[in-house]
Amino acid sequence: MANDKYKETIQPTALRTIVQATLIAGCLDLGSALVYAIFDGHPPIAVPFIIASGVWPGARNAGLAGLFAGLALHFAIMSVMVSVYVLLLRRWPWTGRHPFAAGAVYGLALWCVMYLVVLPLRWPTVLQHMTAISLGEQWLSHIALVGIPIALLAARHQPPSIQRLSAAMEE
Question: Which residue in 104, 114, 110 sits closest to 51, CA to CA?
């Protein structure tokens, strides 16, 4: 019983929050990419190879190395996205009080960074092939499956000092 009380008082570290949110949002995002690939008539196994080909053009012909490189790159990118949000939460406590709104804004900001900055660096014509449907799918994924889950997990695990500050701002 004393052990249970001890567990309740331990706050998860920022690293634990980052790992959990990376795995959850990363799996949700990757899952949506696999589903959208099927809808578009592409084999879902191609998704990790396409991700890897962003930094390794030969990944599509590299077998398991290309597959694992794509998965590793996907989760590495997601860990950066989560880490940035955890830092923002410490700087802007309101994000912990309003995780749905903050997560939606963050998800949309992530889409902007990926599709207006990162992807055009590798594939300059990426926006020319976008349709209203694909834009809606991407926004849905980035907002509902990446931004909001990251915000909810980060808010749930915010440090006590941020919780106190956040509560004081509510008064």
Answer: 114
Which of 79, 80, 56, 83 lies closest to 68 in space, CA to CA? 56
8 belongs to a structural domain: no
Residue appearing with tokens 């749905």: 100
Chunk the chain into consecutive blocks of 10 residues (it has 171) and report each block's average pLDDT, rounded to whole numbers.
48 84 98 94 95 92 95 97 93 90 97 92 82 92 97 83 53 54
Q: How far is CA 91 from CA 8, 63, 96, 116, in A?
A: 25, 43, 10, 25
Q: Is residue 112 part of a domain?
A: yes
Name the pTM for this structure.
0.83
The domain tally of the chain equals 1
Residue with tokens 């996205």: 81
Are the beta carbons of 90 and 165 closer than 8 angstroms? Answer: no
Phi, psi of 148 (to 5 degrees): -70, -45
H or E stretch including 64?
A: helix 64-91
Phi, psi of 13 (to 5 degrees): -75, 165
Rg (Cα) of the chain, in Å, rounded? Answer: 18
Q: Is-contact 96 166, C-beta < 8 A?
A: yes
